[in-house]
Amino acid sequence: MRFDIVTIFPGFFTGFMENGILRRALSEGLVEICTHDLREFTHDRHRTVDDRPFGGGEGMVLKPEPLAEAFAAMGILPKSERVSGVSGVGEDSGVSGVSEAKSQQVGEAGRTRVILMSAQGRPFTQAIARELAVLDRVVLVCGRYEGIDERINELYCDEEISIGDYVLSGGELAAAVLIDAAMRLIPGVLGNQASSEYESFGVPDAEIDSDVDGVPRSQHGAGGLLDYPHYTRPAEFGGLKTPEVLLNGDHLQIRKWRRAQQLRKTLTNRPDLLEKAALSKQDLKLLDEIRNSDL
Ligand code: SAH
After folding, report:
1. Is the CB of 163 under 6 A from ligand 1?
2. 144 ligand 1 Cβ < 6 A
3. What's the predicted TM-score (pTM) here?
4. H helical segments located in the chain
Protein backbone atom coordinates (compact mmCIF):
# COMPACT_ATOMS: atom_id res chain seq x y z
CA MET A 1 0.00 0.00 0.00
CA ARG A 2 1.33 3.36 -0.98
CA PHE A 3 0.62 6.80 0.44
CA ASP A 4 1.55 9.89 -1.57
CA ILE A 5 1.57 13.14 0.38
CA VAL A 6 1.46 16.54 -1.29
CA THR A 7 2.80 19.13 1.14
CA ILE A 8 4.85 22.28 1.46
CA PHE A 9 6.57 20.70 4.52
CA PRO A 10 7.85 17.26 3.47
CA GLY A 11 10.27 17.32 6.43
CA PHE A 12 7.26 17.12 8.76
CA PHE A 13 6.94 13.40 8.04
CA THR A 14 10.55 12.41 8.78
CA GLY A 15 10.15 11.71 12.49
CA PHE A 16 6.72 10.21 11.96
CA MET A 17 8.18 7.54 9.66
CA GLU A 18 11.10 6.71 11.95
CA ASN A 19 9.26 5.22 14.89
CA GLY A 20 7.17 2.33 16.04
CA ILE A 21 4.92 0.18 13.91
CA LEU A 22 5.14 2.48 10.88
CA ARG A 23 8.93 2.27 10.80
CA ARG A 24 8.72 -1.53 10.74
CA ALA A 25 5.94 -1.60 8.15
CA LEU A 26 8.02 0.69 5.91
CA SER A 27 11.19 -1.35 6.31
CA GLU A 28 9.31 -4.57 5.57
CA GLY A 29 7.81 -3.01 2.45
CA LEU A 30 4.22 -3.41 3.63
CA VAL A 31 3.73 0.33 3.36
CA GLU A 32 5.38 2.94 1.19
CA ILE A 33 5.19 6.68 1.80
CA CYS A 34 6.24 9.24 -0.82
CA THR A 35 6.22 12.93 0.00
CA HIS A 36 5.93 15.46 -2.81
CA ASP A 37 7.21 18.96 -2.08
CA LEU A 38 4.75 21.37 -3.62
CA ARG A 39 7.52 23.94 -4.11
CA GLU A 40 9.19 21.58 -6.58
CA PHE A 41 6.28 22.30 -8.91
CA THR A 42 6.70 26.07 -9.00
CA HIS A 43 8.63 27.98 -11.65
CA ASP A 44 9.40 31.37 -10.12
CA ARG A 45 12.49 32.40 -8.21
CA HIS A 46 10.62 32.53 -4.89
CA ARG A 47 8.97 29.13 -5.44
CA THR A 48 5.61 30.69 -4.70
CA VAL A 49 2.85 28.27 -3.73
CA ASP A 50 0.26 30.73 -2.39
CA ASP A 51 -1.63 33.79 -3.51
CA ARG A 52 -4.22 36.25 -2.20
CA PRO A 53 -7.86 35.16 -2.17
CA PHE A 54 -10.23 36.46 -4.82
CA GLY A 55 -12.95 38.47 -3.13
CA GLY A 56 -10.62 39.64 -0.40
CA GLY A 57 -10.49 38.51 3.19
CA GLU A 58 -7.93 36.99 5.51
CA GLY A 59 -4.91 34.93 4.65
CA MET A 60 -3.55 33.22 1.58
CA VAL A 61 -4.67 30.32 -0.61
CA LEU A 62 -2.56 27.52 -2.11
CA LYS A 63 -2.41 28.20 -5.87
CA PRO A 64 -3.87 25.62 -8.25
CA GLU A 65 -1.01 25.30 -10.80
CA PRO A 66 1.65 23.69 -8.57
CA LEU A 67 -0.94 21.26 -7.20
CA ALA A 68 -2.06 20.29 -10.71
CA GLU A 69 1.57 19.77 -11.70
CA ALA A 70 2.16 17.62 -8.64
CA PHE A 71 -0.82 15.44 -9.62
CA ALA A 72 0.53 15.12 -13.16
CA ALA A 73 3.94 14.07 -11.82
CA MET A 74 2.23 11.41 -9.68
CA GLY A 75 0.26 10.12 -12.66
CA ILE A 76 -3.04 11.27 -11.20
CA LEU A 77 -5.43 12.51 -13.87
CA PRO A 78 -8.31 14.93 -13.31
CA LYS A 79 -11.43 12.97 -12.31
CA SER A 80 -13.14 13.68 -15.63
CA GLU A 81 -10.31 11.98 -17.52
CA ARG A 82 -10.26 8.85 -15.40
CA VAL A 83 -11.92 5.81 -16.88
CA SER A 84 -13.95 4.89 -13.81
CA GLY A 85 -14.38 8.49 -12.75
CA VAL A 86 -13.52 7.40 -9.21
CA SER A 87 -9.81 7.83 -8.77
CA GLY A 88 -6.33 8.00 -10.20
CA VAL A 89 -4.02 5.88 -12.30
CA GLY A 90 -0.51 4.51 -11.98
CA GLU A 91 2.50 6.42 -13.22
CA ASP A 92 3.39 3.93 -15.91
CA SER A 93 0.14 4.40 -17.82
CA GLY A 94 1.72 7.29 -19.71
CA VAL A 95 4.42 5.15 -21.27
CA SER A 96 2.12 2.45 -22.63
CA GLY A 97 -0.12 2.58 -25.65
CA VAL A 98 -3.52 4.20 -25.20
CA SER A 99 -5.57 1.03 -24.95
CA GLU A 100 -3.18 -0.55 -22.48
CA ALA A 101 -3.14 2.67 -20.48
CA LYS A 102 -6.92 2.61 -20.34
CA SER A 103 -7.06 -0.96 -19.17
CA GLN A 104 -4.56 -0.11 -16.42
CA GLN A 105 -6.76 2.75 -15.41
CA VAL A 106 -9.73 0.44 -15.07
CA GLY A 107 -7.72 -2.02 -13.03
CA GLU A 108 -6.23 0.52 -10.68
CA ALA A 109 -8.93 3.14 -10.58
CA GLY A 110 -11.01 1.64 -7.81
CA ARG A 111 -7.97 1.03 -5.65
CA THR A 112 -6.60 4.57 -5.60
CA ARG A 113 -8.18 7.42 -3.71
CA VAL A 114 -7.30 11.11 -3.70
CA ILE A 115 -8.15 12.75 -0.40
CA LEU A 116 -8.07 16.41 0.54
CA MET A 117 -7.34 16.96 4.22
CA SER A 118 -9.91 19.56 5.23
CA ALA A 119 -11.74 20.83 8.31
CA GLN A 120 -14.83 20.79 6.08
CA GLY A 121 -14.49 17.08 5.30
CA ARG A 122 -16.28 13.91 6.29
CA PRO A 123 -15.24 13.10 9.87
CA PHE A 124 -12.49 10.47 9.96
CA THR A 125 -13.40 7.22 11.74
CA GLN A 126 -12.07 3.72 12.22
CA ALA A 127 -14.54 2.59 9.53
CA ILE A 128 -12.88 4.96 7.03
CA ALA A 129 -9.44 3.71 8.15
CA ARG A 130 -10.64 0.20 7.27
CA GLU A 131 -11.86 1.38 3.85
CA LEU A 132 -8.45 2.91 3.12
CA ALA A 133 -6.45 -0.08 4.34
CA VAL A 134 -7.63 -2.21 1.40
CA LEU A 135 -6.67 0.32 -1.28
CA ASP A 136 -3.41 0.18 -3.27
CA ARG A 137 -2.76 3.88 -3.21
CA VAL A 138 -3.97 6.85 -1.19
CA VAL A 139 -2.98 10.37 -2.22
CA LEU A 140 -3.25 12.95 0.56
CA VAL A 141 -3.31 16.66 -0.16
CA CYS A 142 -2.25 18.85 2.75
CA GLY A 143 -3.63 22.37 2.76
CA ARG A 144 -2.00 25.35 4.47
CA TYR A 145 -3.02 28.95 5.09
CA GLU A 146 -6.76 29.33 4.31
CA GLY A 147 -6.73 26.11 2.30
CA ILE A 148 -6.30 25.19 -1.36
CA ASP A 149 -7.96 26.64 -4.46
CA GLU A 150 -11.36 24.91 -4.59
CA ARG A 151 -10.96 23.98 -8.27
CA ILE A 152 -8.24 21.49 -7.32
CA ASN A 153 -10.71 19.84 -4.96
CA GLU A 154 -13.33 19.72 -7.72
CA LEU A 155 -10.98 18.51 -10.42
CA TYR A 156 -8.87 15.92 -8.61
CA CYS A 157 -10.10 14.99 -5.12
CA ASP A 158 -12.40 12.02 -4.51
CA GLU A 159 -13.30 13.29 -1.06
CA GLU A 160 -12.46 15.63 1.80
CA ILE A 161 -11.63 14.18 5.20
CA SER A 162 -11.49 16.00 8.54
CA ILE A 163 -9.84 14.51 11.61
CA GLY A 164 -12.10 16.43 13.98
CA ASP A 165 -14.11 19.56 14.58
CA TYR A 166 -11.22 21.94 15.09
CA VAL A 167 -8.97 23.89 12.75
CA LEU A 168 -5.31 22.90 12.35
CA SER A 169 -2.70 25.11 10.75
CA GLY A 170 -2.04 22.52 8.06
CA GLY A 171 -3.14 19.17 6.68
CA GLU A 172 0.16 17.40 7.54
CA LEU A 173 -0.82 16.38 11.06
CA ALA A 174 -4.21 15.22 9.79
CA ALA A 175 -2.54 13.19 7.02
CA ALA A 176 -0.25 11.58 9.58
CA VAL A 177 -3.26 10.67 11.75
CA LEU A 178 -5.01 9.09 8.78
CA ILE A 179 -1.92 7.16 7.66
CA ASP A 180 -1.24 5.90 11.18
CA ALA A 181 -4.78 4.63 11.68
CA ALA A 182 -5.01 3.03 8.20
CA MET A 183 -1.55 1.41 7.96
CA ARG A 184 -1.94 -0.57 11.19
CA LEU A 185 -4.98 -2.29 9.65
CA ILE A 186 -3.04 -3.53 6.62
CA PRO A 187 -2.64 -7.31 6.92
CA GLY A 188 0.76 -8.20 8.33
CA VAL A 189 1.48 -4.81 9.90
CA LEU A 190 0.33 -5.59 13.43
CA GLY A 191 2.01 -8.60 14.96
CA ASN A 192 -1.33 -9.81 16.22
CA GLN A 193 -4.08 -9.23 13.65
CA ALA A 194 -6.75 -9.86 16.27
CA SER A 195 -5.72 -6.79 18.22
CA SER A 196 -7.19 -4.50 15.58
CA GLU A 197 -10.47 -6.40 15.65
CA TYR A 198 -10.96 -6.35 19.39
CA GLU A 199 -9.95 -2.81 20.24
CA SER A 200 -12.17 0.26 20.41
CA PHE A 201 -14.20 0.75 17.20
CA GLY A 202 -13.17 -2.75 16.02
CA VAL A 203 -14.88 -4.66 13.21
CA PRO A 204 -18.69 -4.97 13.36
CA ASP A 205 -19.99 -7.55 15.80
CA ALA A 206 -21.25 -9.79 13.02
CA GLU A 207 -17.69 -10.29 11.83
CA ILE A 208 -16.41 -11.51 15.19
CA ASP A 209 -16.90 -15.18 16.00
CA SER A 210 -18.52 -15.88 19.32
CA ASP A 211 -16.38 -18.08 21.42
CA VAL A 212 -17.19 -21.74 22.01
CA ASP A 213 -18.70 -20.95 25.37
CA GLY A 214 -21.06 -18.51 23.70
CA VAL A 215 -19.56 -15.46 25.32
CA PRO A 216 -18.60 -12.87 22.75
CA ARG A 217 -14.88 -12.27 22.92
CA SER A 218 -15.68 -8.67 22.34
CA GLN A 219 -18.39 -6.83 20.51
CA HIS A 220 -16.99 -3.40 20.11
CA GLY A 221 -17.58 -2.96 16.42
CA ALA A 222 -17.99 0.25 14.45
CA GLY A 223 -21.02 1.50 16.32
CA GLY A 224 -19.90 -0.84 19.08
CA LEU A 225 -18.24 -0.35 22.41
CA LEU A 226 -14.98 1.10 23.66
CA ASP A 227 -12.12 -1.11 24.81
CA TYR A 228 -11.91 -2.47 28.37
CA PRO A 229 -9.14 -1.32 30.75
CA HIS A 230 -5.77 -3.08 30.64
CA TYR A 231 -3.42 -3.98 33.52
CA THR A 232 0.09 -5.42 33.71
CA ARG A 233 2.60 -6.16 36.48
CA PRO A 234 2.98 -5.26 39.30
CA ALA A 235 -0.34 -6.54 40.63
CA GLU A 236 -0.47 -3.62 43.04
CA PHE A 237 0.62 -0.12 42.10
CA GLY A 238 0.18 3.26 43.75
CA GLY A 239 -2.04 1.67 46.37
CA LEU A 240 -4.35 0.26 43.69
CA LYS A 241 -4.84 -3.45 43.12
CA THR A 242 -5.39 -5.11 39.75
CA PRO A 243 -8.98 -6.40 39.74
CA GLU A 244 -8.91 -9.87 41.30
CA VAL A 245 -10.82 -11.49 38.43
CA LEU A 246 -7.90 -10.86 36.04
CA LEU A 247 -5.48 -12.76 38.26
CA ASN A 248 -7.37 -16.02 38.79
CA GLY A 249 -7.20 -17.44 35.25
CA ASP A 250 -10.96 -18.08 34.88
CA HIS A 251 -11.34 -17.00 31.26
CA LEU A 252 -15.11 -17.02 31.21
CA GLN A 253 -15.20 -14.72 34.24
CA ILE A 254 -12.51 -12.53 32.69
CA ARG A 255 -14.51 -12.08 29.49
CA LYS A 256 -17.66 -11.25 31.40
CA TRP A 257 -15.78 -8.71 33.50
CA ARG A 258 -14.19 -7.13 30.44
CA ARG A 259 -17.56 -6.91 28.71
CA ALA A 260 -19.04 -5.17 31.75
CA GLN A 261 -16.09 -2.77 31.79
CA GLN A 262 -16.60 -1.97 28.11
CA LEU A 263 -20.22 -1.18 28.80
CA ARG A 264 -19.30 0.94 31.82
CA LYS A 265 -16.62 2.89 29.96
CA THR A 266 -18.84 3.46 26.93
CA LEU A 267 -21.74 4.58 29.11
CA THR A 268 -19.47 7.04 30.92
CA ASN A 269 -17.41 8.43 28.04
CA ARG A 270 -19.40 7.78 24.86
CA PRO A 271 -23.07 7.07 25.60
CA ASP A 272 -23.80 7.95 21.94
CA LEU A 273 -22.08 4.70 20.88
CA LEU A 274 -24.46 2.60 22.98
CA GLU A 275 -27.39 3.61 20.81
CA LYS A 276 -25.79 2.00 17.76
CA ALA A 277 -24.14 -0.98 19.47
CA ALA A 278 -25.49 -4.49 18.97
CA LEU A 279 -26.18 -5.43 22.57
CA SER A 280 -27.22 -8.88 23.77
CA LYS A 281 -29.90 -9.42 26.43
CA GLN A 282 -27.08 -10.05 28.87
CA ASP A 283 -25.45 -6.75 27.89
CA LEU A 284 -28.69 -4.87 28.47
CA LYS A 285 -29.03 -6.47 31.89
CA LEU A 286 -25.45 -5.56 32.75
CA LEU A 287 -26.03 -2.04 31.51
CA ASP A 288 -29.05 -1.70 33.80
CA GLU A 289 -26.98 -2.93 36.72
CA ILE A 290 -24.24 -0.43 35.89
CA ARG A 291 -26.75 2.41 35.54
CA ASN A 292 -28.29 1.55 38.87
CA SER A 293 -24.97 1.29 40.69
CA ASP A 294 -22.65 4.23 41.30
CA LEU A 295 -20.66 4.79 38.15
N1 SAH B 1 -10.09 27.99 6.15
C2 SAH B 1 -10.19 26.60 6.53
C3 SAH B 1 -9.08 26.19 7.47
C4 SAH B 1 -7.74 26.13 6.83
S5 SAH B 1 -6.55 25.44 7.89
C6 SAH B 1 -11.52 26.39 7.25
O7 SAH B 1 -12.01 27.29 7.91
O8 SAH B 1 -12.08 25.28 7.14
C9 SAH B 1 -5.30 24.95 6.74
C10 SAH B 1 -5.31 23.51 6.30
O11 SAH B 1 -5.19 22.66 7.41
C12 SAH B 1 -6.55 23.04 5.57
O13 SAH B 1 -6.51 23.36 4.22
C14 SAH B 1 -6.51 21.55 5.80
O15 SAH B 1 -5.68 20.91 4.85
C16 SAH B 1 -5.85 21.44 7.16
N17 SAH B 1 -6.80 21.22 8.24
C18 SAH B 1 -7.22 22.10 9.17
N19 SAH B 1 -8.08 21.55 10.03
C20 SAH B 1 -8.23 20.26 9.65
C21 SAH B 1 -8.98 19.18 10.16
N22 SAH B 1 -9.78 19.30 11.22
N23 SAH B 1 -8.88 17.99 9.53
C24 SAH B 1 -8.10 17.84 8.43
N25 SAH B 1 -7.35 18.84 7.91
C26 SAH B 1 -7.40 20.05 8.52
Report:
1. yes
2. yes
3. 0.87
4. 13-17, 20-27, 64-74, 98-109, 126-133, 150-156, 171-183, 194-197, 251-269, 271-276, 281-292
